[in-house]
Amino acid sequence: MAFDSFRSKPHLGQEHYHGMQDAGQLLLSRPFEISIILETKQFTFVQEGDDWRYVTQEAYGNSLQDLFNDALTLLLVAKVERTFSVLKTELSDYGINEEALTLVATAENTDLSIRQRFKFGNVTPDLFGQYVYDEQGAVVHIIPAYQGQNLRDLILRVSGITNY
Fold this sequence. Notes:
Radius of gyration: 16 Å
Strand order of the largest sheet: 1-7-11-10-9-8-3-4-5
Number of helices: 3
Helix content: 10-25%
Distance between the termini: 33 Å
Oligomer: single chain
């Protein structure tokens, strides 16, 4: 398999396939709030029915609100192509660091609030996937690259961050 040549040796044989599982199933089955963090900027969305609403949507207007809603909705149905364990010392090999675009998903399950953090890393060497680190599971998921790219481009567009 061509992908094996792109992974470090300790990961060979530890890869898990999810039968093209939706990213939303790996993130949280029913998140009610999603925050996206890039550098010092944070964008928080809450779910209202089937839509995601930016908490301060008036700042960007309805056209950008619709773009964010579409990007988040698509991200939650993105197909996870592969998953493998990774050591924290190897995260930089995948472009995952403190400055990485971070998604925090929050859900509630019978009075218990669950929060998961995901950091978006580099595009895979074949240019079709993107590494996403699940901090709780200490695993890297590979999702289609355009999913993370759409979200990153929107955040850059509204944040004024130019050195990313």
